[in-house]
Every structure is written in structure tokens, then in C-alpha cells.
Specification:
It is a single chain. The chain is mostly helical. It has a domain of 214 residues. The protein has a two-stranded antiparallel ribbon with strand order 1-2. It starts with a helix and ends with a helix.
Length: 497
């Protein structure tokens, strides 16, 4: 490993974090946007380089200041965290490249440098969580990303974002507090905050009751952050009323980082040390996953605002991820982890298409979109293909993760058959709610004159189609995400007794 590659885990976080105050000083909006996009592109390139490295068998460990763990701060990247870094940096980069029109429409020019600085802080926090190797610094990065996310969600012109952010803030604060209480209990019993050291010391603790309580606090706290059903109430309004560029960014990656951390704690720290925790994990998550899949999909069937409809779809997709994880098998965890990547592709492409629609349409309710496909054919086609991926049509990325999930479910015997039925029903529900949007933009009568409606700007359309084509590419050649997901699943299960 070269000297430069040795520093990549630190650079992954430092580049966006140090770029944020510089961007804030760039008063012309074009410079601030260009600098933020350049920092995000650089972070994306670092994530790709580390992904290629872990695929070739390299490991990344970085000791801040040269202090060894557990005394110093350690950063590390394995195949699981590399997948998350790829998702987060890719989502940020695509959203920034396509988001100029959205940001200009929603945010006053004088406040745009502050907005882009907050964006980079949110990016740095979301990247720091998978990179950090100790529980307290994970909390620090969690708070950085949360506080910055509140700012960029509320930064638009829609005042309805303010109560949405307030609800998000309350729920996020409760989640972070629960997480910190759990970490404090573990530190009290083990005397360490390093995750690897924590795993070794927990089984030496005589009284396991505080560890069980800590596991409960951490699991519920992270479930709040990840919008796990029924703790999802902050998510629909946050996605609906945020600026469109922000929705593209956060919908593709924010909840997945919390889910990553939930799996990391439960499998690395608790599963191998608490007797029967794997069974408790299954009994706790599987019913919630099934309820999320069915209820959230059912709500999406009746939503009129397409951003809110897709937000409820995201809650159902979180259910898919949790369902695979609840099997506690290599096949289930592989399906769960590969859906991190494939859902980010599908939902990112869908919200990019929604951003394109918003450039010309008077609103984003189904009644506002009647017949716009005639004036925006490329945008409409992009939405249809991305919708195919969300449904799981063969040839798209969404099909790959659903195929792996069905295969993992069938390993569960008679219970698996019932779960496959749930997956099929939810896919049919996805067909219905995606069709409602397609029907409106292609076949409904226009509610107003469409003469002023035109195709989205070229750059926005190009980025949207790049995301759409990525859904097709990784549906036909899924080797990279599947390899990373399989390795991540095997690594998680190595920690079971």
C-alpha cells in the first residue's frame, strides 16, 4: 500500500470537513457551488479508490496521531464500510451536479454559501460514521451529520419544512441520546470505546444486565435514526418539504448509514457475547420489517404528492433491508447489504427525475402532472426506468436484491414461503403506486396550459440518466455490489459464536 493510500480513510472525512468553512467564505454562488461539488467529487474518487483496494484484498487502518487503539482514535475501512462510502459520496455528487436549478429556486443567493457549507458538513458526518472505529467518535459524526441535515432540509423556501425539521430534530435527538446512554453503559462495564476492544471485553463482564440494557438503548436509538417502522414518523415530511436536491442526497444514503451502524453494533459487539441475542434480533426485527413493507406500501398507494409517495416507499424498502438481516444468515445479510446499494440507485434516480419534473411543473401532486410526458419525454422515460428498478423488474438493479432476498427467505422453510408472499404482494403494490405516477404524466388530462412546460436543463437530465443507466448496468453486471455485500455478510457472521 502506497503512502498516499494509507491516508485515504482520513482524507475521506477531512476533505469535505475542511472544505465546508472555505465554501462558506465564497460569496458568489457559482464559486460556492463549484467548490462544494469539487469536494464531493474528490470524496467520491477516494471512496472508489478504497473500494477497488478492498476488492483487491487491501485493508485500510489509520491511527490519528500515530496513537494505537484503544488509546488513540482509529479509522478503518472494510468491504462493508466501503460500500457505504460509495453510496454516500455518490449520492452527494449526483445531487450536487444536478441540483443547481433546485438550489437557485429554493435558496436565496446570499445564503447559498452557508447552505453548501452545511451540505459538506452533512457529507463529512455521514462519511465519518462508517470510517470511525470507536463508539464515541461515531456519536460525534452522527451529531455533525444530523445538525447539518436539519439546516439543509429547512434551508429552502417551503416553510412547511420547519415543522418537519422540528419533528426530525426531536426524534433524532431522542435517538442520539439513547445511543449515547447505551455507549455509556458499555463503557462503564468494559472501560473502552473502541469497537474491536469492546467486543473482546464484553464477554468478560460478570453482570450482563447493563450490557443487555445498553443493547436495547442502542438498537432503539439507531432504529429512530434509520426510520425503522414504527419510528419513521419524521421521514415523510422531511423528504417531502426539503429542497429537491437535498431529498436526492438524503433519500439515497442517510437512513442506510444508521442501518449500517445498527448491523455493525448488533453483529460485531452484541451477537457474539450475549446468549440468544441472534434469536432476539430476529424476533424483534422480522415483524417490524413485514409491517413496514406492507403498511408503508399501502400508504404510498393513496398519496397524492409524489415526493411523499416515494418517501413512504423508502420506509418499505428499509423493511426489505431489515427482513434480510433478520434471517441472520449469509444469504439474508447479503440480500440486505446489496439492497443498500441497489435501493440507493433506484431511489436516487427517482428523486432526480422528480427534480427534473419540478423545474417546469407548477406542483408535484399527481393532479399537477397531467400529460407532462408530452413536453418532458426524457424526464418521463427516466422516471419509468427508475420505477422499474424500484419494483424489481429483471434487468434492473432492484431485481438483483429482491432475487437474493427471495432466495434467502426460501431457506427459512414454511415461514419463508409466507415471507415470499409478502415480498410478492409488496412488489405488486409498488407496481400500482409507480403506475399511478406514470398514468398521470402520460395519460391524464392536463390541469393547466402546458405551453410553458419544457424539458429539464441538460446537465440535470444528463445526471438523471447517468443514475438510470447505472440501475441498468448493475442489474446486468452486479459483481461489485454483490461481492462487497457477500464479504460484508461473511464478516458480520464471523462474530457469532
Amino acid at each position: 500500500m502506497t503512502d498516499l493510500s494509507h491516508h485515504l480513510p482520513a482524507l475521506q472525512v477531512i476533505v469535505p470537513m475542511l472544505s465546508a468553512p472555505l465554501v462558506m467564505l465564497l460569496k458568489p454562488r457559482g464559486l460556492a457551488r463549484a467548490a462544494a461539488t469539487a469536494a464531493s467529487l474528490f470524496a467520491f474518487a477516494i471512496a472508489i479508490a478504497m473500494t477497488m483496494g478492498v476488492l483487491d484484498g487491501s485493508t485500510y487502518t489509520y491511527r490519528m496521531g500515530g496513537w494505537p487503539a484503544p488509546y488513540g482514535i482509529e479509522l478503518g475501512v472494510d468491504r462493508f464500510s466501503a460500500l457505504l462510502l460509495l453510496i454516500v459520496t455518490g449520492a452527494s455528487t449526483f445531487a450536487l451536479l444536478a441540483g443547481r436549478r433546485s438550489v437557485d429556486a429554493d435558496i436565496d443567493e446570499s445564503r447559498q454559501p452557508l447552505f453548501y457549507a452545511a451540505w459538506l458538513l452533512a457529507l463529512a458526518g455521514l462519511l465519518g460514521i462508517p470510517v470511525a472505529a470507536d463508539a464515541f467518535n461515531i456519536f460525534v459524526f452522527m451529531e455533525i451529520s444530523s445538525l447539518a441535515s436539519y439546516v439543509i432540509i429547512a434551508g429552502g423556501s417551503d416553510r412547511r419544512a420547519l415543522p418537519a425539521v422540528f419533528k426530525y430534530l426531536i426524534m433524532g435527538t431522542i435517538g442520539a441520546t439513547f445511543y449515547l446512554i447505551g455507549v455509556g453503559l458499555i463503557y462503564l462495564m468494559t472501560g473502552t470505546l473502541n469497537l474491536a476492544d469492546m467486543e473482546l471485553r464484553i464477554h468478560e463482564v460478570g453482570d450482563q444486565k447493563p450490557i443487555l440494557v445498553a443493547a436495547g438503548f442502542i438498537t432503539i436509538g439507531l432504529a429512530l435514526k434509520a426510520a425503522v417502522f414504527p419510528l419513521h414518523v419524521w421521514l415523510p415530511n422531511a423528504y417531502t418539504y426539503a429542497p429537491n436536491a437535498v431529498t436526492v442526497f438524503l433519500a439515497a444514503c442517510s437512513t442506510k448509514v444508521s442501518l449500517y451502524l445498527l448491523l455493525r453494533f448488533d453483529f460485531f459487539v452484541f451477537q457474539g457475547n450475549l446468549a440468544g441475542h441472534d434469536v432476539q434480533f430476529t424476533y424483534f426485527l422480522m415483524p417490524l420489517a413485514v409491517l413496514a413493507i406492507l403498511i408503508a406500501s399501502g400508504v404510498a398507494l393513496f398519496e397524492q404528492n409524489i415526493k411523499r409517495l416515494l418517501a413512504y416507499s423508502s420506509i418499505a424498502q428499509i423493511g426489505y433491508i431489515l427482513l434480510g438481516a433478520s434471517f441472520v444468515t449469509v444469504a439474508g445479510l447479503t440480500a440486505s447489504t446489496v439492497h443498500f446499494f441497489n435501493h440507493a440507485l433506484a431511489k436516487g434516480a427517482l428523486f432526480l427525475a422528480v427534480s427534473c419534473l419540478a423545474t417546469s411543473c407548477v406542483g408535484l401532486r399527481l393532479s399537477d402532472l397531467g400529460g407532462v410526458a408530452k413536453r418532458m419525454p426524457w424526464t418521463a422515460a427516466a422516471f419509468v426506468v427508475a420505477g422499474f428498478s424500484l419494483i424489481g423488474i429483471p434487468g434492473t438493479a432492484g431485481f438483483i436484491s429482491k432475487w437474493y432476498l427471495i432466495t434467502a427467505a426460501l431457506e427459512q422453510g414454511s415461514l419463508g414461503i409466507a415471507l415470499v408472499a409478502v415480498l410478492v404482494i409488496s412488489s405488486l403494490m409498488a407496481v400500482v403506486y409507480i403506475w399511478r405516477i406514470v398514468e398521470a404524466i402520460y395519460f391524464a388530462e392536463p390541469s393547466s396550459d402546458l405551453s410553458a412546460v419544457g424539458e429539464a436543463p441538460f446537465m440535470m437530465l444528463a445526471v438523471t440518466w447517468a443514475a438510470v443507466l447505472a440501475n441498468l448496468y448493475f442489474g446486468l453486471a452486479p459483481d461489485v455490489p454483490v461481492t462487497l455485500a457477500t464479504s460484508a455478510a461473511e464478516t458480520l457472521l464471523e462474530h457469532l459464536p
